Amino acid sequence: MSLLDSLNNDLKAAMKAHDKETLSTVRMLKSAATNEQIKVGHALTSDEEIAVLSRELKQRKDSVAEFSDAGRADLVPSLENEIKVVQRYLPKQLGEDEVKTIVQETMQRVGASSKADFGKVMGAVMPQVKGQADGKLVNSVVKSLLK
């Protein structure tokens, strides 16, 4: 089942349940996926679907941080609910220990040993964890292991 099909089904379910928060988030996700489909000119592949969802998730996480810093804690709970809805459509997220294991294996494979190899390691790790781990987490793990 494609992402748009899942979103349409969940959209109908949220309408029937009168779940306004889920409904608005699913509508935003559906809009983002449809816009991306129009932009690329074909049905989205699973990698493209994950890219759209990851972008939407990142936007919401960034907004939570910005609202918290600006003293607008009243807006954070609704964004956290949106994050939960977006995460339903993404693959299971890797934990820090799992990312550390992948980074260590990649460092051995590419022969990385110093901070100068940061780009090489990141370039090899990111395709492996695409959609499954946040780039900031991967970045911090790679930096800590290359010290």
From TrEMBL:
Q: Which Gene3D superfamilies match?
A: 1.10.10.410, Uncharacterised protein YqeY/AIM41 PF09424, N-terminal domain
Record's protein name: GatB Yqey domain-containing protein
What superkingdom heads the lineage?
Bacteria
One Pfam family hit: YqeY
User: What are the recorded GO MF terms, alphabetically?
Assistant: carbon-nitrogen ligase activity, with glutamine as amido-N-donor
- Which taxonomic lineage does the organism of this UniProt entry have? Bacteria, Bacillati, Bacillota, Bacilli, Lactobacillales
- Per the UniProt entry, what species is this protein from, by scientific name? Liquorilactobacillus aquaticus DSM 21051
